[in-house]
Amino acid sequence: MFPNLFIINSTGEVLIEKHWEGKAPRKVVETFMEQQVKKERKIDVTPVIETPKCFLVHSRRGDIVLLTAINKETAPLFVLEIHNKIMQVMYHYFGPSVSSRTVRDHFSLIYHLLDEMVDGGFPFTTDINQLQAMIQPPTIVNKMMETFANSDSVKKALPEGMLTKIPWRRTGVKYHSNEICFDLLEEINCIIERNSNLSVCEIKGSIVCTCRLSGMPDITLTVTHPSLIQDAVLHRCVRINRFRRDRVISFVPPDGRFTLLTYFLRGPAQLPIFVRPSITYTDGSGNVSISIGSKMREYKAIEDIKVVIPFPKEMLSSNLTANSGSVSTVETATGHHREVHWNLPRIPQNKSPTLEGSVLFPPGFKADYRPTLVVHFNVKMWNTSGLQVDGLNVTDVKYKPFRGVRTATRAGRFHVRC
């Protein structure tokens, strides 16, 4: 049961309040803000807060918070998943930067979306294509129609696709140029020890599809090494029985961009980059030497590299130079430590980038911990698991569509211990 929803801003002002079962008092918002004040950082507030009368489940996105008060045996993950789905729909309707001002500007439209997404406290219509067929996005043309033609963004009649066996795809879709593209995206989460050995490694991958096909196409996708896709989350359009039996991804796609499946791989993996740090502290100072480079046999451009080096807040100054890229010192928002950011547009082929120098502390200061580096990077046309599209077949259409496949890998939580 999803009983209620409060959308509040960073100061605790209620922007939207909606109840499906009973009516929770607004005091729950004050209770949540009191719990938030007790923490030094907002992100340290646990997603589920226990109070004497209820449990408060919240999700934070930018400067807005989605808050739900539950007092029955309701799974918190169920509530968090609905929060996440509501935010996905809002991102799709209003763009990637949804803020408290966005909520105020589109107050009535968000209310209409909530009415369709949740019915009687349970998820009802959450598919973006179905919602768009009933409630038009706030484009300039739609706003002019509402102003001058006195039309409503909410359709008066139920769309045709709502009653079909394939509710996730709109009926009567037509394109002059038919194309379908797949993006194989992977994210590396790992911890590398001081001796360069992998302590923990996990790969989160996803196949994102962008579909602009006319009619009602039926698609069959096969991949190399299908056994890698074990711990997978499938889109509702995938025929799950055939996937389990043949490891073939067969589906009728929604219109537009969507995530076809998400998979997780755990264990040793091939990393595209190496980082060799050496940070030593002496009385009142510290020596820094960090080198990075590519570990790939075939050259692929490693771009947007950023190495974050945390130092104690007592650091007075730094004298660090790099033979490639730029170096800057940043004060963290919490003030617990200071960070040195080393940014490189890409790793050059003719030299190995290095960062060297020293940092200065007050006399007699001794650091009681070794820093852990955080590394960010992007690699296009390469993935660490080796998963590739092996075959793509489009049937039930009379045209020959354009087909494209791209791969990319980026760093997620990529930590290197010194």
Characterise the protein shown here.
By secondary structure, the chain is α+β, with helices and mostly antiparallel strands. The chain is 17% helix and 43% strand. The chain is built from seven helices and 23 strands. The protein has helices at residues 27-37, 76-94, 100-105, 107-117, 128-134, 140-148, 240-246; strands spanning 4-9, 14-19, 48-50, 55-61, 64-70, 118-119, 122-123, 179-192, 198-212, 218-223, 231-234, 249-251, 256-266, 273-282, 285-294, 302-312, 317-322, 326-331, 337-346, 354-360, 372-380, 389-395, 402-417. A nine-stranded mixed sheet has the order 11-13-9-8-23-21-16-19-18, with no helix packed on it. The model has no long low-confidence stretch (mean pLDDT 88).
Supply Rg: 26 Å
N- to C-terminal distance: 47 Å
Query: Into which percent range does the helicity of residues fall?
Result: 10-25%
* Shape type: globular
Indicate the proportion of strand residues.
35-45%
Instruction: Provide mean pLDDT, rounded.
Output: 88
Sheet having the most strands: 9 strands, mixed
Low-confidence stretches: none
Strand count: 23
Q: In which order are the strands of the major sheet placed? A: 11-13-9-8-23-21-16-19-18
Q: What is the count of helical runs? A: 7
